[in-house]
Design goal:
Blueprint lengths: L2 H9 L6 H12 L5 H14 L3 H12 L15 E5 L7 H11 L4 E5 L9 H5 L11 H11 L1 E5 L6 H13 L5 H14 L4 E8 L8 H17 L3 E8 L7 E2 L1 H12 L5 H18 L5 H13 L2 H12 L5 H4 L9 E6 L4 E6 L1 H13 L13 E4 L6 E2 L4 E7 L2 H11 L3 E4 L9 E5 L5
Parallel strand pairs: 1-4, 2-3, 4-5
Antiparallel strand pairs: 5-13, 6-9, 7-11, 8-10, 8-12, 9-11
The chain binds uracil (URA).
Uracil (URA) binds next to helix 9.
Length: 438
Amino acid sequence: MRGLDLILKKRNGESLSPDEINFLVKQFNEGVIPDYQMAALLMAVFFQGFSNKETNALTTALASSGEMLDFSFLSDIVVDKHSSGGVGDKVTLILAPLVAAAGIPVAKLSGRSLDFTGGTIDKLESIPGFNANLSIDRFMELVSEHGLAIMAQTDRITPAEGKLYALRDATGTVDDISLIAASIMSKKIAAGASAILLDVKTGSGAFMQSKDEAFHLAETMIRIGKDLGKRTVALITDMNQPLGFAVGNALEVKEAVHVLQGEGPRDVEQLCLILGGYLMALTGKVRNAEEGQVQLSRLINSGAAYEKFKQLVVAQGGDKAFLEDLSLLPKASYIQEIHAGKDGYLVEIDAKRVGKAVSLLGAGRASKEQQIDHAVGLVLNHKVGDSIIKGETLAFIHSNNQENFGTALKELSNAFSIKAEAVEIPPLVYGVVPPFPS
Ligand code: URA
């Protein structure tokens, strides 16, 4: 087999066999197939497409390019969740301990911030001492001991996926549904959970801007999960405005703790309960998602979910004093307000612009090496649908230097839209794939 022949085959619209795809991924991972040939293949895939069989083969090849975790030694079904990325998306911080508090082991590999979307690991690292760089053995030990661990992605799991993603990023081949689905599902499959919940976000602050694209991605991932023997469910959820009020690392931890204490924003709590309900139903521990939601809601009210979060933080080296007194978390030096220019109804808070602005403040990174400022971010004072009086505060900007503040403010100047007519408040969830229970 030769890389060049396979590139030509795909370029000419023929299908590649699982063996051929496996060969390409293996040789690329070992550095035998150079970047320029893999880039040509990616572009051929982008234009010619991958069949279901080819997408499954790519997923399997990427998943098996590194260590594959195996939790079969546990008697319970281990679960995992994935979000396609959003602004103010602190769901993992809440959902993981919540579901673990229900006695369902959660093993979660998470990423860092990417472009305008935040990363769970950066958020957790705003808690002093928290260590997400666990060894695989320690990660599995924690899942076994506490029923919960959250670890940063490592090169030992799906290394070929990391290399391929970097190449896609540099060659304009990221936004192909088959490639995205294989990329996401390979990481989930290698991470060892048997039940996977996919939160596919759609809207201005999401990777998938249109609902059609989001459903297509969800359906593709669900099919891969089914074909590869994983219980999988996907919810298509709104990301037109930020989730909750807080955007930024420590600010989101604070909001997540409020939700775990039963005092958080309603949209965040509702979404976590809905997603958690489906995850519980997927494991078979409850008859349906509604029953799961009721159980999880009790675990928030009893304080069990909050205790589980503290246990997670302590087990991974964090100082729980910062959760018990949230004012100890990193704080920005300046808090400035954005005011409404007119009366009316808030009809849009462009999540992408908010995400970009918060990233410019220092909460995200433009390159992998960049240091994050955990303290900075934005706290909304209003959400879409609220009636607004001219001069009212729309949001508070938390910054640590005036130059960043000016740049972020410029980005935010068009993020808020106020109109005379009210709009319908967008739903939290647009749909479930497959229609549930299936
Ligand atoms: N997120 C991923 O993990 N992979 C992609 O290809 C796109 C988004």
